[in-house]
Structures are given as C-alpha cells and as structure tokens.
Write a structure and sequence with these properties.
With 357 residues, the protein is an alpha/beta fold. The chain is built from 11 helices and 16 strands. Helices cover 27% and strands 25% of the residues. The strands form 3 sheets. Strands 3, 5, 6, 7, 8, 15 and 16 form a 7-stranded mixed sheet that branches. Strands 11-10-9-12-13-14 form a 6-stranded parallel sheet, sandwiched between helices. A 3-stranded antiparallel sheet has the order 2-1-4. The radius of gyration is 20 Å and the shape is globular.
Length: 357
C-alpha cells in the first residue's frame, strides 16, 4: 500500500476540498478498505456548511459507501483482502460498556459510535479505516449493485430505526414527516411493520412518487397550511398512532406532538444541524402528562444489522434503486455531488459517485 492518499475533506466551516493524507494504519482487529461507490448525506452538508458538529480542519468527509477490503488485522477472522463489503455509517466499539448495555452507537460517549467524519476521518478517500472489522463489516450480498449498496450504509438503517423508535405495529396510522432519502426508508419500513394508513409529508414530485411506491397512502404539503391541521382533518380529529420525524428542524417536534394521539409515540432520526432548543408545546403535550412518548436516536450499527437489512433487498422486500437519482462516475465528481446535495434540486433524492464497478 502507498504511504499517501488523496481525500475529499472539510477544510474549515463553509469550505471543502481535496487534500493529501497519510494512509491510515490497521490495528489487529481492524480493516483498511477502498471505496467502490460513495453517497453524499445531508449530514455532510450540515457538517461543512453549518458547522453542526463544530469546526473541523482537514477532516475527511463521508460515512456512506460500499467498499473492498485491502488489508485486515491479525485478529480479524471473517474478512480478507478482496472481499466486497457493506460499511455501516455507525461503527461501534463492540467491547465497550455502552455496547453491552445495548447502545453501541454511543460507545465511548454520546454519538461516539458515529466515527466517520465525526470522531475520525470519513470514507471519501482512497483508503479508510474500519474499527472492529468482524463486528462492523458485512459481505456484499451476491447480485447487489455497489451503487445501491451505498444506501445500506445509512439511509436504510436510519429510516428503519425511526420506525423502531416510534414502535410502529400492524394496523397503525403513521405520519412520516419528511420524505427525503431517510424518510423514504421510514415509509418503506413502516409498511413492512404493518402500518395500515401511511401519511407522508413532502412536496417534491420525485419523492412523492417514490413514497407512494414504498407504501404511502396519503400525502400532505406544508404549503397547504399547518401540518397538524391537515392531519386532524384527515383523521377526524383523532390524530395518528405514531409519528416518524425524518426531516424538519427544532420546531418539527411541536408539530409531531400536536399530531399524535394520547398514548402515541414519536420516533425521531432527524439530524438537527442548527438551533438550540427543541420546541415541545406544553398544552398539546398534555401539560406534561399526555402519555405522548418522544424517542430520538442514532441508528445502531454493526454487522448483524447490515446482514438482516440487506436480506430485505436480496429477497425482494425492498428496492433501493429508487433512492438513487443522480449517478456520477469517478472521484472528480465528489465536489459536484456534495454541491447538488446542498442545493437540493427538485429532481434529487440521492447522489452517488461510483468509483469502481
């Protein structure tokens, strides 16, 4: 392996660009991988242009990819150089106390299971490091396109986790706020969990069409008035059983609380890139006693989750290709892909950059 590599990095708040870095070292339990395909996440935009996780200098961006293993440590048992692998965005330290408590995504501290482009360099480089390779990587299933496999890193497990946090079950009426890449996977997951009525909030035609294909039964546009007013009218004043927040801002929690029934649950997987205080309306929350449960969580990572979720694709339960609307060929298009994710044109769901077929 070479000593140096090229990487696309956050240079400082508001600026990203190409730099040269040392190739990362491989520990005994770890792996070094090279990307096959890369996807841009909205959180990359929050990180660079909003400084959402604070100022970073020359930190390699990216946490969504499909990759090939280049090197493994001496203690790695299940992977070898040449293996094509799924790489989850969240890579816990599986021997941590937090992981033993069931919250590996916070291993080492709050959000510290999210390592790529947060605690360490991300995946937008010729080579990147994966900790606990046996616990975090998963083999790319036969027949899965590496382009589609980038969606497995974050969009699928995060969208599914929103549905888990909301505890969606059969027969529920579910509201999904935000039908970007994550919200679309929440729609698909809610349908798989047995939701009967699935109300999606979104306006872009490409996203509405995809949400309908994934199982949405009704649609709401914020342009037509307050979301809560529309939900109450649609449900004859009763509200919904469950809400998944996959978009919006600190004020979106207020909308969700107003929409959910007493005893209902709200699951949020939305990255709040700005704002200081989350808005929870006192009266609609039952002055604190409405039994309206709010759960916000970072999606769990790890190999088992990757294997289980990818099996949905293998056996035809989930079509990932609807998510990919913009496909670029080659490293040189990474800046363009980041910019288009920032601009969010009407025909965009997800941009992916293919490095190697």
């Amino acid at each position: 392996m070479p000593e140096k590599m090229k990487a696309f990095a956050m240079l400082r708040i508001g600026e990203a660009g190409w730099i040269e870095k040392d190739v990362p070292e491989c520990g005994p339990n770890d792996a070094i991988c090279t990307p096959l395909a890369l996807a841009i996440c909205t959180s990359d935009v929050h990180t660079v242009y909003e400084g959402a996780i604070g100022d970073r200098h020359n930190m390699v961006l990216g946490h969504e990819c499909c990759a090939e293993v280049v090197k493994v440590g001496s203690e790695v048992k299940d992977f070898k150089p040449g293996d094509r692998v799924l790489v989850p965005a969240i890579t816990p330290d599986w021997n941590s106390l937090e992981a033993q408590a069931g919250f590996g995504q916070h291993s080492g501290g709050l959000l510290s299971g999210w390592k790529f482009s947060n605690c360490k360099d991300g995946v937008f480089s010729e080579y990147f490091h994966v900790n606990d390779a046996d616990g975090n990587l998963a083999l790319l299933p036969p027949g899965m396109d590496p382009v589609d496999a980038t969606i497995m890193s974050d969009m699928v497990p995060t969208g599914v986790h929103g549905v888990e946090l909301a505890d969606v079950t059969f027969g529920d009426t579910v509201l999904v706020i935000g039908i970007g890449p994550v919200g679309l996977m929440s729609v698909a997951a809610a349908a798989l969990h047995g939701a009967s009525r699935l109300i999606a909030v979104g306006t872009r035609p490409v996203c509405v069409a995809a949400a309908k294909a994934y199982g949405a039964t009704d649609f709401i546009s914020y342009k037509d008035g307050p979301i809560e007013d529309q939900v109450m009218k649609m449900t004859n004043g009763k509200g919904v059983d469950k809400v998944v927040i996959a978009g919006g801002d600190v004020h979106t929690f207020g909308t969700a609380v107003k929409c959910v029934k007493p005893g209902g649950k709200i699951g949020s997987v939305n990255y709040l890139g700005s704002g200081d205080i989350v808005d929870i309306p006192r009266v609609e929350w039952g002055v604190g006693m409405g039994n309206k449960q709010i759960n916000g969580g970072l999606m769990p990572g790890g190999r088992l989750r990757m294997e289980k979720l990818s099996s949905l694709v293998t056996y035809g339960r989930l079509d990932l290709h609807r998510e990919v609307t913009h496909l670029y060929e080659g490293w040189e298009h990474l800046p363009e892909a980041l910019q288009i994710m920032k601009d969010k044109p009407a025909d965009l769901i997800k941009p992916v950059v293919r490095i190697k077929k």
